Amino acid sequence: MPMAEMAATEAPPQPEPGKLTIVDVRARPAPLAGGTGAVYFTVLNGLDQAVQLVSASSPAAEAVETHETTNENGVMKMSPLPDGYPIAAGEALMLQPGGKHIMLIGLVEPLEPGDEVELTVNFDNGESMALTVPVMDMQMSGMDMSNMQMGSESMAQDATDDGAMAGHDHGDMSDADHEAMMGMLKDASPEVKAAIMALPIEAIHSMDESLMEGKLDPAFAATVSGLIEQVDASTWPEGLQAHFDEVRSTATDLLAALETGDAAAAGPLAADLHDMLHEMEMGLMD
What is the mean pLDDT of residues 159-175? Predict the structure, then answer.
């Protein structure tokens, strides 16, 4: 299997005639084992015929799926695309936050900036590519990374030393409080569990990805407003109420930042909100 090259660019370069090439490879940090992660890259099809990216696999996750985030009537939704992605002859396929991406489901361990993930990408013409994917703060996407090479330990170390790969602050809940919340979620009534799963968790995840790259969308405010309405409309057990109060407070601050177009303030708030909701979601799955 040929090793794909990595050369991050703002716009995809021209495909090399006669070759399939993958560039701009990266994965976003993911704070929880058992949770989800996402991988992004660009495929350049220099062949004289269309190809389909049909699947991917990785030892870092229990399952790997091809997904796409879309805006449906002002609400961000993330859906699997089991058939993968077509790439026309001479064209490029861009996987990026807020759009098409490779979803890592059931992570074996958290993904921290500076880590690397092994990923194999398969095409319908029988070709496969083995990638070594660096985990990086998505805010690095605006930097000049043209001289970064796949699997370079020095690249990851240099970026860490400079502080460029600082991860999200995922809150200061104590271990005891966390254990107590996980127990309450596990023992929650079917009605409470259904109310939690009905929250727009995947939409907040997609928003977090986009805001990490500084991308604002008018649909984000509608998504957060809808989340606040759902939280307010439900009756939560006393033991979980404090956590939902924190969810609502963070969502309210995020909504204010979105309505003023403050992407710098919205990004960390979306990350915190995503972590809160995802933690509850994982508690229901235990």
Answer: 41
Residue with the two structure tokens 């991308």: 215
Average pLDDT score over residue span 229-249 = 86
The pLDDT, as a whole number, for residue 147 is 30
Structural contact between residues 75 and 203, judged by C-beta atoms closer than 8 angstroms? yes
pLDDT digits (tens, 9 = 90+) for 86-100: 999 999 999 988 789
Domain 175-285 sits in CATH at: 1.20.120
CA distance 180 to 186: 10
pLDDT score, position 286: 57
| Segments making up each domain of the chain, as ranges | 20-145+152-161, 175-285
Determine the Cα–Cα distance for residues 254 and 87; give it in Å rounded to an integer. 36
Find all residues with CB under 8 Å of 255, minimum gap 6, and list them.
221, 224, 225, 228
Q: Do 127 and 87 form a contact (C-beta atoms < 8 A)?
A: no
Pick the CATH number of 20-145+152-161 from 2.60.40.1890, 3.40.640.10, 1.10.10.10, 3.40.50.920: 2.60.40.1890
pLDDT beyond 70 at 176? no
Q: Could you tell me the pLDDT band of residue 118, with boundaries at 50, 70 and 90?
A: very high
Q: In terms of pTM, does the model score above 0.70?
A: no
Q: Which residues of 205-241 are buried (b: 16+ CB within 10 A; e: fewer)?
A: bbbbbbbbbebbbebbbbbbbbbeeebeeeebeeebe
Q: How far, rounded to the nearest angstrom, does the alpha carbon of residue 281 sit from its chain's CA centroid?
A: 15
Cα separation, 209 vs 136, in Å, equals: 12
